[in-house]
Amino acid sequence: MSSAITTSTTPQTTLSASKPVMGTLRYIPAGHIPEKSPHNYHLPAISEFSDVRHLPLCNMLPLPSVADLAAAENHAQLSTHGFTAVTHPTTLNCPPYDVSSWKDPSLLAQHYIPDTAAMLKCITGCSAVITEALLLRSAIWTESDALATHAGHGRDTETDPEPQTDPSAETLSLETGFPAFIGFNASQGGVSPAPKPHVDYSPAGARTHIREYHSKLTSAAASIIAAEDALLAEGKSLKENYHPTDSTGGPRWALYSIWRPLKPVRRDPLALLDQRTLKDEDFIPVNITTPCLGREDGSTETHEAEGYLASYREGHEWNWIEDQKPEEVLVIGLFDSGMEREGGVASGGTLHSSVELEGREGEEARESLELRCLCVW
Fold first, then answer.
1. Tens-place pLDDT, residues 238-248
2. Is residue 78 within 8 Å of 330, Cβ to Cβ?
3. How confident is the model at residue 166, as a pLDDT?
4. Do the domain assignments include residue 3?
5. Average pLDDT, rounded, for the chain
6. How many Å apart are CA 172 and CA 155, to the nearest integer?
7. What segment(s) does the record annotate as region Disordered (predicted)?
8. Between the CA of residue 181 and those of 78, 133, 302, 343, what are the distances in Å?
9. 5-35 burial string, b = 16+ CB within 10 Å, else e?
10. What's the CA gap between 87 and 226, in Å, rounded?
11. How does 345-370 read in b/e, with b if 16+ C-beta sit within 10 Å?
């Protein structure tokens, strides 16, 4: 294992005129090949991320509204940075709703999912938004959290040798349904932050995801999968040949994470790396064990979906929203088929991580909600 490295650097550019705050971020040492985690949904152990850096965080405030985003000069955009941020209050941000309302799956289905779909259509111009999962993060970081045993899937036999109590039919329906509600099971506790810079999917991982993650996601992506499989059967590269403008028969598609806090963020904020400051050789592929949900036989099969970690390079520029509030929303690119031909290795995906702030260790746990979705044009 490489020894920890600690450095500081100065950003080449900033998205805000305010003085950057310093945050602690952990990279994979250059040349090191990390071991995959034994836990479902989890990245490799924190010990693999031994290149510890104290880096400036460029504050994105003030944020534009959705309507003003396209015209906002010097503000992060999906097409350039791989992420964006907007002010977007929703129904649940207003009375009579409160923080507890964001933990009620029925209210999220009734209000938040359609509000977010409308927002994404305005920002991206997509024609359809398919919400696949909502993740509630409300715990202090631990190496293995509620994700590991979600919906009755894998468990660590060393730390949890006894089988867990079977979840109720209602709980199981939420955990394996579409969208899947993750971190909402009170007996399991909430999901914890992820203090490990990563992109959830490589292009190959994104394609595995729409085929394997949930049977209803696969159905929703049927036209995409059919067009891609036809090209593969002809021995053609998807990167070079899957483009709707070239009449391949399949639509442009993208995976996004929509991230917002349930209360002002005082610790473990989310930071995002401007994809223009990354080079292809910075990325390190890793397999992530992921449950296969929605199977008719109720099986607890898993699949391997490839994501990316990264090694440090001077000039990496990290961005955040200082003391982020519930109406301040991050839209994070995970993959975009429309950016694949000319884009870098991550094809619209950008590194992101929770980040440690000095002096904030005693603050209460961050509470945040992540909505993951497939957008189709």
1. 999 998 776 66
2. no
3. 54
4. no
5. 90
6. 16
7. 149-170
8. 26, 6, 18, 32
9. eeeeeebeebbbeeebeebebbbbbeebebe
10. 37
11. bbbbbbbbbbbbbeeeeeeebbbbbb
In terms of pLDDT, which residue wins out, 154 or 192? 192
pLDDT band at residue 7 under the 50/70/90 scheme: very low
How many angstroms separate the CA atoms of 260 and 265, rounded?
10
Q: Give residue 227's identity as a one-letter amino acid code.
A: A
Per-residue pLDDT of 246-287, as tens digits, reads: 666 799 999 999 999 999 999 999 999 999 999 999 999 999
Q: What is the DSSP letter of 314?
A: T
Alpha-carbon span 226 to 62, nearest angstrom: 43
Cβ-count burial 201-238 (b if 16+ within 10 Å, e if not): bbbebbbbbbbbbbebbbebbeebbebbeebeeeeeeb
| Paired residues of 198 in beta bridges | 352
Q: What is the pLDDT of residue 295?
A: 86
What's the pLDDT at 341? 86
Coil, helix or strand at residue 370:
strand
Angle at CA of residue 330, ends 42 and 293, nearest 5°: 40
DSSP3 helix / strand / coil % (the chain, rounded to 5): 25, 25, 50
Residue 13, in any domain of the structure: no
- Give the separation between CA 274 and CA 18, rounded to whole angstroms: 18
Tokens of 343: 């884009």
Range of the domain at 364: 21-376
| 266 falls within a domain | yes
Within a 10 A sphere around the Cβ of 103, how many other Cβ atoms? 18
On whether residue 293 sits in a domain, the answer given is: yes
Alpha-helical (H) ranges within 93-198 are: 105-107, 113-124, 169-176
Q: Within the chain, where are the H helices?
A: 78-81, 105-107, 113-124, 169-176, 203-212, 215-220, 222-233, 238-241
The domain total for the chain is 1
What percent of the chain has pLDDT above 70? 90
Q: Stretch 349-365: mean pLDDT, rounded? A: 94
Average pLDDT over residues 289-318: 93
**Residues 168-194: tens digit of each pLDDT:** 777 788 899 999 999 998 777 789 999
Alpha-carbon span 185 to 205, nearest angstrom: 27
The predicted structure's pLDDT at residue 157:
43
CA distance 331 to 233: 34
